[in-house]
Write a structure and sequence with these properties.
Length: 272
């Protein structure tokens, strides 16, 4: 059996996904063919046409990252798995007799976040594809107040509406006060990546919260998480999410069950 897959996204040269899939493929006697489609290097890019082409080439499926997760959900339409169809974002398209769209960011985050007990107020910066997954997961896990801030006010309002109560969009004028009184802080933007240095949260506002999560995983020691750790917050890294996401993506592609207790330590070797 050969798994033919790839990754569509912008600035993805540092991704550990092919290495993670290779580890799991070896454990199950599967060969892997994996291709990166880095749209930052393309003068023009058509998401739908590209996916059509991958299907015609006989690929098993494709993983999708920023900024195309909402494109993937629209492409899958009624083919979205019923457990995640409400999210409006998709990061895994599996081809076959019929197409199925998954969101392993959502299921992966729920697994990575299990160890955090606090369910107090959360501030999430960012309202893109990964924010749709993480925001919905936080509400499903019992968070009763989810404040969403994005530089695009309409996008934040749209995400809050799609998630529903207790999600709410907040303006920049109330951001500082809301951060100071929050229990959890979430960065769901690319800020912190090598290509987008900096912190999504003002470091002077970090302190007094309980936990912090950064969706960025290359690097794992982002400025935001460094400040959070220094302030004594419990930190969940993007790499924690990545490992759980990769396991669920492999299972979606192949149909094989994965022993997380066995595979998670092996994936730890890929930590940036």
């Amino acid at each position: 059996m050969t798994l033919r897959a790839g990754l569509i996204g912008s600035h993805i040269s540092r991704t550990r996904l092919p290495s993670a899939l290779e580890i799991m493929c070896e454990a199950h006697g599967i060969s892997l063919e994996f291709e990166l489609i880095d749209t930052a290097e393309l003068k023009s890019f058509d998401f739908d046409a590209t996916v059509h082409g991958l299907i015609n080439r006989g690929w098993s499926g494709v993983t999708v990252t920023r900024p195309y997760k909402t494109n993937a959900a629209r492409y899958a339409e009624d083919g979205m798995h019923p457990d995640v169809a409400h999210l409006g974002a998709c990061n895994t398209l599996v081809f076959g007799d019929y197409l199925i769209g998954y969101n392993t960011d959502y299921t992966g985050f729920m697994a990575a976040f299990e160890r955090v007990e606090d369910r107090g107020p959360v501030v999430m910066v960012g309202a893109g594809g990964v924010a749709r997954s993480i925001g919905a997961a936080l509400v499903a896990l019992g968070v009763k107040d989810l404040a969403i801030y994005d530089t695009d006010t309409l996008r934040a309002k749209d995400l809050a509406f799609s998630i529903g109560p207790p999600a709410r969009a907040i303006p920049v004028s109330t951001l500082h006060d809301t951060v100071r009184t929050a229990s959890g802080l979430v960065n769901a933007t690319p800020v912190g990546m090598v290509e987008y240095p900096g912190s999504a949260f003002d470091p002077t506002l970090i302190g007094g919260q309980v936990w912090a999560f950064d969706a960025v995983y290359t690097p794992t020691d982002t400025a935001f998480l460094n400040a959070s750790q220094a302030a004594g917050l419990e930190c969940v890294t993007g790499f924690d999410l990545f490992r759980h996401m990769a396991i669920r993506s492999f299972a979606a592609y192949t149909g094989f069950a994965v022993d997380a207790d066995d595979i998670l330590p092996k994936l730890e070797a890929l930590r940036p």
